[in-house]
Amino acid sequence: MNPITRINPAELAPPTGFSHAVTATGGTLVLLAGQTALDGDGKVVGETLPAQFETALGNLLTALRAAGGAPTSLARVTVYATDVADYRAHARELGAIWRRLAGREYPAMAVIGTTRLWDEQALVELDGIAILD
What's the CA gap between 19 and 15, in Å, rounded? Predict the structure, then answer.
């Protein structure tokens, strides 16, 4: 049984690509470090935000799988973007990437604008919290 329950109250605006609240009971807590679009050699790949988002999300999910989890284990994801307007402009494409890689079980999420990330060429970084059965 999945220890995560997603809660979306009818009184709030319908969530698009996130859940308003997530509860977790039992299980093992997994804290996922921020992931950018680094390849196996430690170089940022992808020239566009969607290309980097796909790699960064893939890296986050790889770390999660290595810890014994799956995309449905994600309780919380924070996205750090160097250009929030660009992120919003690509929201539909980013949503399609999310659904292809992680499915339709959305964690609680936030997008935070930042001037720069650790990897200077990075346009986006994702970190997360997961709960394993």
Answer: 6
Q: Who contacts 92 (Cβ-Cβ below 8 Å, separation ≥6)? A: none
DSSP states along 12-60: SPPPSSSBSEEEE-SSEEEEEEEE-SB-TTS-B--SSHHHHHHHHHHHH
Using only C-alpha atoms, the chain has a radius of gyration, in whole angstroms, of 15
Please name the residues in contact with 7: beta carbons below 8 A apart, sequence gap of 6 or more.
19, 20, 21, 22, 23
Instruction: For the full predicted model, state whether its pTM sits above 0.90.
Output: yes
pLDDT of 28-83, one tens digit each?
999 999 999 999 999 999 999 999 999 999 999 999 999 999 999 999 999 999 99
Identity at 94, one-letter amino acid code:
L
**Angstrom distance (rounded) from CA 2 to CA 121:** 37
Contact 106, 15 (CB under 8 A): yes
DSSP annotation of 106: P
Question: CA torsion sign, 53 to 68 to 103 to 22?
Answer: negative
Structure tokens at 86: 């660009």
